[in-house]
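Exercise 7b. Backbone tokens:
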């Protein structure tokens, strides 16, 4: 496989000549709850497009879920199952990409340990998400080693598979850069061991939730992929809109409205244009605007619901998907661990040879 490309690629096009080997990408999502529309727009929709163009490894990051939800692990198994169903129902195809569970490949933990030995604490403390999440997520003790060190585990997840690229939005670039810094530090001490993956910059709209903040399970402001049509409407109907629109006849400013933010992700461009104009001229009321939005959200969710029912009826299917994925991922991971052990002069089974 060709490594070390010197430029990022836009996800909207692939200029790779036919004789150049397929490049490799890796990414994961933690199963801290059901998949919501922010997850879909921010990652999964892009993964589904990329699986046809790259050798792709996509994993359910169950160990990462423990960084903020370690006190109650009761729902984690169900979350894993539901996430896997959602992934496949929305279009991720295990025949086209490698889908696996992080904890099924123990080499993630071993590389995390080895990388932690060379990672300065100051690098972790400057992580922009570290203090931000401690401020935003209340009622939980996040002063743990696991929460501070989760970027190291994330780096292990990436570097373990010798990825050429990692699909990221601009807000995730600091995390990937840390992985690249750790790879460089490893090379400084032990020589070239793992390549530095490049970002695959992708369009990741900042999807707002029901309360106008970023859609997040932690904020309890999500529309979930598994929500019924009635549940979607009952969530969208009371959403706060532009506060200037007190009466139906009052003109509004769409960019101040979380509902319009959702339109920009789920409605066709011509509909977005009409909603924008209708809001500014009071040509459309907020309830009618919300009904149009729900219709376009349903164009994504309705086919996924049908696929979910089909998957649920296939006995043993999900178990086999994860087993096959763990085997493929494990083969790659073991090769990387072997190389890292050799570079670090660690025992490889027989210290007397």
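Sequence design result:
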């Amino acid at each position: 496989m060709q490594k070390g490309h010197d430029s990022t690629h836009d996800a909207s096009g692939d200029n790779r000549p036919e004789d150049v080997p397929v490049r490799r990408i890796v990414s994961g999502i933690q199963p801290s709850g059901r998949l919501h529309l922010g997850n879909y727009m921010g990652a999964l929709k892009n993964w589904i497009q990329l699986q046809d163009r790259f050798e792709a490894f996509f994993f359910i990051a169950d160990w990462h879920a423990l960084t903020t939800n370690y006190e109650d692990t009761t729902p984690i198994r169900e979350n894993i199952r539901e996430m896997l169903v959602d992934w496949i129902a929305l279009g991720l195809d295990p025949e086209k990409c490698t889908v696996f569970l992080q904890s099924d490949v123990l080499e993630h933990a071993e590389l995390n340990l080895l990388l932690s030995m060379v990672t300065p604490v100051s690098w972790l403390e400057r992580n922009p998400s570290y203090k931000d999440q401690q401020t935003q997520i209340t009622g939980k003790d996040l002063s743990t080693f696991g929460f501070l060190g989760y970027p190291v585990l994330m780096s292990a997840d990436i570097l373990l598979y010798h990825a050429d690229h990692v699909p990221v939005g601009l807000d995730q670039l600091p995390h990937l850069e840390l992985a690249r810094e750790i790879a460089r530090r490893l090379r400084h001490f032990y020589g070239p061991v793992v390549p530095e993956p490049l970002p695959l910059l992708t369009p990741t709209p900042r999807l707002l939730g029901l309360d106008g903040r970023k859609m997040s399970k932690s904020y309890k402001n999500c529309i979930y992929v598994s929500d019924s049509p009635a549940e979607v409407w009952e969530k969208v109907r009371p959403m706060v809109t532009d506060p200037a629109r007190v009466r139906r006849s009052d003109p509004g400013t769409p960019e101040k409205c979380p509902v319009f933010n959702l339109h920009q992700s789920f409605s066709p461009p011509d509909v977005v244009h009409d909603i924008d104009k209708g809001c500014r001229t009071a040509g459309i009321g907020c309830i009618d605007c919300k009904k149009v939005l729900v219709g376009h959200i349903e164009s994504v969710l309705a086919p996924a619901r049908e696929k979910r029912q089909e998957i649920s009826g296939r006995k043993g299917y999900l178990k086999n998907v994860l087993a096959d994925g763990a085997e493929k991922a494990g083969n790659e991971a073991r090769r990387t661990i072997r190389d890292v052990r050799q570079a670090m002069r660690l025992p490889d089974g027989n210290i007397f040879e």
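Instructor comment: Residues 1-17 have pLDDT under 50 and may be disordered. The chain has two domains: 24-207+316-343, 227-312.
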